[in-house]
Design goal:
This protein has 394 residues and is α+β, with helices and mostly antiparallel strands. It has helices spanning 10-31, 35-40, 46-58, 77-87, 96-99, 102-105, 115-124, 238-274, 286-314, 323-345, 347-350, 356-365, 373-387, and strands spanning 130-133, 150-154, 157-167, 175-181, 191-197, 203-207, 217-227, 231-232, 276-277, 280-281. The strands form 3 sheets. A 4-stranded mixed sheet has the order 1-4-5-8, covered by helices on one side. Strands 2-3-7-6 form a 4-stranded antiparallel sheet, with no helix packed on it. Strand 2 and strand 3 (157-167) form a beta hairpin. It binds flavin-adenine dinucleotide. Flavin-adenine dinucleotide binds next to strand 1, strand 3 and helix 13. Flavin-adenine dinucleotide is lined by residues 132-135, 140-141, 166-168, 210, 212, 214, 216, 365, 368-369, 371-372, 374-375, 378.
Length: 394
């Protein structure tokens, strides 16, 4: 398994390997056997989710990415990314949340002393979940330039109006982190973040039916009044907080993509070993071997880029310019992999007997979420063309 190239001392590397092995064995022994049941029931039941959450808590695998002083375990980015990758071999939609809080609740880390017991601590303890609401019906890639949701100060309150689209995890969340324009005309510096209870007056939620298991929501805000104390960070700081968190989340997202594709490859390899045609297992045919080899290469390249980047960030080295490259490499390498695996599995890959068809749909969607591959390519080219910024070679 890959270990970050630059940061860990040997003992860090050993700890990282042990953590990876532990998570992998939980996935193999405890989660994958439940997959057929979860798929048959159309998702993870609340009861089973609670049981699994208790299990990972008992193993002390809780809030790995939250700093120790905030009640978490303070693991570095490489370790939390590796946990994300391992968990992604299992196709349950929600088991990741208790281990890695930062999935949707990452910017809550910026709560002040008064906000912490109300908002952050219950999330760290696993009692509550939070969703992140930036995208709107008219503003996806151009999230700030076309943002229409506003927050207007009225006495001791802010009054929010607008709507947010594709808000993941809304159904399980009690809290929404809503980005809204507080200072029109100031671009990113005019956007602030508000902590809005999902059941606050003026909040309406409608779930979307997409081709993936995840059912994000459209959230409508009509004269939704929240106290001034529910602003996260300072006025105009919302996008800066979100960007810092999105940086890590894009790496977690890349790890998820690689984990899902790894699972697809394992399914395809197992099938290629045993499926016989014209007197031989198909795995003995070069056409199939090349698809397996090309997939293994794609995943190796994606992992190498990913863990080089997390290793540099953990070591305090500049790596921001590598993040869009990692995201594109992981998304597209994983997509090529699942497409080949689908081909190797033949008709079985299309059936709902295996999780392959779900992985196929999910990995396809990941080229769009957390910034589309076009937007990430645009950023890479802009850095080079305008600022002569290239990722460092060593
Ligand atoms: C399943 C799912 C979960 C999500 N979860 C969340 C969430 O929890 N919170 C949240 O706030 N958002 C969430 N999103 C929103 C997600 O971040 C956006 O969908 C994404 O940023 C793309 O925006 P868009 O869909 O509006 O596409 P658009 O921005 O409308 O883009 C449409 C197409 O145009 C291309 N394009 C746009 N601008 C350019 C350009 N300058 N150059 C070249 N091509 C361009 C895009 O690459 C894309 O191909 C989620 C989306 C999905 C599908």
């Amino acid at each position: 398994m890959p270990i970050a190239a630059s940061s860990p001392t040997p003992s860090d590397a050993e700890e990282l390997r042990a953590l990876r092995d532990l998570v992998r064995s939980i996935v193999d022994r405890e989660l994958l056997p439940l997959e057929p049941q979860v798929r048959a029931e159309g998702g993870l039941s609340a009861e089973l989710r609670l049981t699994l959450e208790e299990r990972v808590r008992a193993l002390d695998l809780w809030a790995l990415d939250v700093p120790e002083e905030l009640g978490g375990q303070g693991l570095g980015l490489t370790a939390t990314t590796a946990v994300n990758e391992e968990l992604a071999r299992c196709t349950f939609p929600t088991i990741r949340a208790p281990l890695i809080i930062g999935g949707a609740a990452g910017i809550l880390i910026n709560c002040n002393e008064q906000q912490r017991p109300l908002y952050l601590d219950p999330v760290v303890r696993g009692e509550r979940h939070a969703a992140f609401a930036l995208t709107e019906p008219d503003s996806g890639s151009d999230a700030v330039g076309l943002m229409r949701t506003t927050a207007v100060r009225d006495g001791d309150d802010w009054v929010l109006n607008g709507s947010k689209l594709y808000v993941s995890n809304t159904s399980m969340s009690d809290l929404l982190q809503v980005m809204a324009v507080t200072d029109p005309g100031r671009g990113a510096a005019g956007v602030s973040c508000f902590l809005v209870p999902r059941d606050a007056p003026g909040v309406e939620v409608s779930y979307l039916d997409l081709m993936i298991p995840e059912k994000p929501a459209e959230v409508f805000l009509a004269d939704c009044r929240v106290p001034a104390s529910s602003m996260l960070g300072e006025q105009g700081e919302g996008m800066a907080l979100a960007q810092a968190w999105l940086r890590n989340n894009r790496l977690f997202h890349s790890a998820k993509c690689i984990g899902r594709a790894q699972r697809a490859l394992e399914l395809a390899v197992e099938f290629a070993r045993t499926r016989v045609s014209f007197g031989k297992p198909i795995g003995e045919r070069q056409a199939i071997q090349f698809m397996i080899a090309d997939s293994a290469i794609d995943l190796h390249v994606a992992r190498t880029a990913l863990y080089r980047c997390t290793g540099r960030i953990d070591a305090g080295l500049p790596a921001g310019d590598e993040i869009p490259m990692v995201k594109v490499t992981a998304n597209e390498g994983a997509w090529r992999t699942v497409d080949r695996c689908m081909q190797i599995l033949g008709g079985l890959g299309l059936s709902r007997e295996l999780p392959m068809e779900q992985i196929f749909r999910e990995v396809r969607s990941m080229r769009i979420t957390e910034g589309t591959t076009e937007i990430h390519r645009w950023r890479i080219a802009r850095n080079i063309l305008k600022e002569d910024r290239w990722p460092s070679v060593v």
